[in-house]
Amino acid sequence: MGSTSMEVDGWDGWDMVSPTPLTLAPAFSSKLISPDFLSLYSKGRVLGHKRAKRNSRPNTSLVQIEGVANKEDAQFYLGKRVAYVYKAKREIQGSKIRVIWGRITRPHGSSGVVKSKFRSNLPPRAFGASVRVMLYPSNI
Hints:
By secondary structure, the chain is mostly beta strands.
């Protein structure tokens, strides 16, 4: 391989097996990840409902995804599924763990926050709680 401006210590970003460059999700690109373990979800935090000055709109929730700092990185997560996992007091079918599923619909602002709609509205106790942003369905 010839020397290019992008080459660092003899490695130019191309995989030895496939002729395409390696790409990871924007949230993972700044972190060093071993190829043995890749998670199927990213972590996010519920910021609250979409709202105006006086009106709250609980059918849409705002989520900040870890490692996403701008609108361009947030574009990768559009259409991805979101899961709010919580524990309830009463068991149903032998489990106290419940899940509310949702989907990321669009970016919110320019700082990497996204809007998401859940099947049932998130309760206020979910504000500040973590959610799982699944890396599927994939559009790459």
